[in-house]
Amino acid sequence: MSTQTDISPDPDGDEPTRRDFLYIATIAMGGIGVGSLAWPFIAQMNPDASALALSTSEVDIGSMQPGDQVSVMWRGKPVFIRYRTEEEIAEAEAVEVSELPDQNARLEVDPAATATNENRSLADRPEFILMTGVCTHLGCIPLSEAGDFGGWFCPCHGSHYDTAGRIRRGPAPENLAIPTYEFISDTTIRIG
């Protein structure tokens, strides 16, 4: 006994017609056409290669000596890297965090860290400090080895930062910010 498959017309009469196929094909081709036209406009909103290159900066600190400072540009802002002397480190360590106007370390990677000298200096390299060189008051660039605390001094409105970049006196509300960084070799730091 053989079985036959029943090929009977759709009882509701909703079987696709040639016209339905043309509608679907037209809509699909229209979607592809709109996508093809829109893609260049969407793609032009992505950052170009020069913007991506500025997202990180690599700095060789191998030739720095105690007391040296270099400034590099990162994302349009100066970043100070200072090789502190032993006296500068001792001054920064002697400060109680409870005495500071801003007790937050302002680390990009750990927003809850306290402003100890250890948290503000580079990991495993306490002689170095790295921070954004923009005053937290109105965005001026502070001068190094100046001010009442031997760190940085903002000439615009008189903010004084200590040797760990912490605000000690003046209108600035926060410590100098420390961006994300990593050592990619013994002497090279990548910022960003």
Task: Note down, in words, how this protein is organized.
The chain has four helices and eleven strands, in the order ααβββααββββββββ. The strands form three sheets. Strands 2-3-5-4 form a four-stranded antiparallel beta sheet. The chain has a four-stranded antiparallel beta sheet with strand order 6-7-8-9, with no helix packed on it. The protein has a three-stranded antiparallel beta sheet with strand order 1-11-10, with no helix packed on it. The longest helix is centred in the first third of the chain and has 26 residues. The chain is elongated and about 90 Å long. The model has no long low-confidence stretch (mean pLDDT 89).
Structural class per helix/strand content? alpha+beta
Describe the strand arrangement of the main beta sheet, using strand numbers. Answer: 2-3-5-4
Head-to-tail CA distance between termini: 77 Å
> For the residues shown, what is the average pLDDT?
89
Q: In summary, what is this structure?
A:
With 192 residues, this protein is of the alpha+beta class.
Looking at this protein, list some descriptive labels.
single chain, 192 residues, alpha+beta, four-stranded antiparallel sheet, 4 helices, elongated
How is the secondary structure organized here?
Blueprint: H1 18-43, H2 49-53, E1 57-60, E2 69-74, E3 77-83, H3 86-93, H4 117-120, E4 121-122, E5 125-132, E6 143-144, E7 152-154, E8 159-161, E9 167-169, E10 181-183, E11 188-191
Antiparallel strand pairs: 1-11, 2-3, 3-5, 4-5, 6-7, 7-8, 8-9, 10-11
